Amino acid sequence: MLLYRININTLEDPLQNEKLLEQVGPERRNKVIRYLQPDDRKRSLGAGIMIRKLLGENGLSESSLKYSENGKPVADHLYFNISHAGDYVVGVVSDCEVGCDIEQNVNAPLEIAEHYFYSSEREYIEAAVDPGKAFFTLWTLKESYMKMTGRGMGLPLDSFEIVRKDARFVLGKSPEKPGFFRTMEFEDYIFSVCNESDFTLNQNEFFDIL
Ligand SMILES: CC(C)(COP(=O)(O)OP(=O)(O)OC[C@H]1O[C@@H](n2cnc3c(N)ncnc32)[C@H](O)[C@@H]1OP(=O)(O)O)[C@@H](O)C(=O)NCCC(=O)NCCS
User: Fold this and answer.
1) For the chain, which has fewer Cβ within 10 Å, the N-terminal or C-terminal residue?
2) What is residue 204's predicted lDDT score, i.e. its pLDDT?
3) Which residue's alpha carbon is nearest to atom 13 within ligand 1?
């Protein structure tokens, strides 16, 4: 498993420096400039730069990039996924289906857990010293699974359960397909990965791009 990261503060706003847009293809360029906020443009540009780099490192060009029915970017013989939040764009490359999610641990919307999490998941949050961190840990784990399957939010949050077991997180009730999880923190970000087969994740072993 390889981990990649871009801090978007290393990028200028692509509307102020249009040369930056030349680092990505026309589809991504159009996506970037549609965002109204500079940080959204930077995250989207960062995502485009990251995808191009992951493809390039594996001998592929942007023409190999396709989107699944639910919008997951995919390429032949390359398993990858990206996520962005706050200052960061992160990416993972694996040897089987993979999904990842990053969130910044600020203002956790705990009411989401009230409505859409299993009672065991709510209990995990309620028992935690830092309920916000516990919420985002479960949230990123759930999103990483939804993104691994490719269904994204098309897979309801309450259709599967994440359980803490032997110092790890595993799938509980109703998994659509198997998934193996790892989660880590850096700064005030929580980052989780779900892979189709078991794997290890070395804390903070990111390749920082740019
Ligand atoms: C995937 C999804 C859960 C991501 O939500 P998020 O937390 O806001 O975003 P993240 O930062 O973690 O990830 C975004 C990235 O995941 C990737 N992605 C998009 N859809 C994905 C999917 N279904 N599965 C896996 N990855 C996906 C993209 O690279 C996207 O970044 P980009 O738009 O800049 O290229 C959400 O966008 C979703 O549910 N999308 C599916 C929508 C859908 O079902 N559409 C129906 C057909 S159009």
Assistant:
1) C
2) 77
3) 83
